[in-house]
Amino acid sequence: MNESIDTRIRAVALNIRKIREYRNYTQEYLAMKLGISQNAYSKIELGYTRITLERLIQISQILGVDSVDLLSANAENMVRLHTTK
Fold first, then answer.
1. How far, in whole angstroms, is CA 27 from its chain's centroid?
2. What angle do CA 80, 82, 84 make, to 5 degrees?
3. SS3 letters for 12-80?
4. What is the pLDDT of residues 19-48, one digit of tens each?
5. Rounded-to-integer distance, Cα 79 and Cα 65, Å
6. What SS3 state is found at 6?
7. Contact 28/38 with Cβ under 8 angstroms?
8. pTM of the entire predicted model
9. Backbone dihedral region of 52: left (phi > 0), alpha (psi from -120 to 50 degrees) or beta?
């Protein structure tokens, strides 16, 4: 548990971005589905905004992935884990 919280937040944000890009979804699309602005969504992917558990679950449902995968997998494995989903 040597990783700082900020490092983990950035890792989760990167996982979200990687899956979004793999799905060919735009930031605008996810923002619209979440009911927020594109700018607010961009801050999530950059790790500037700390999201709630509820928001994480919403994002994972839109992306079609398990919330746990967004928390635990590294970005390199995210696309491999979900290429068949």
1. 11
2. 100
3. HHHHHHHHHHHCCCCHHHHHHHHCCCHHHHHHHHCCCCCCCHHHHHHHHHHHCCCHHHHHHCCHHHHHH
4. 999 999 999 999 999 999 999 999 999 999
5. 10
6. helix
7. yes
8. 0.84
9. beta
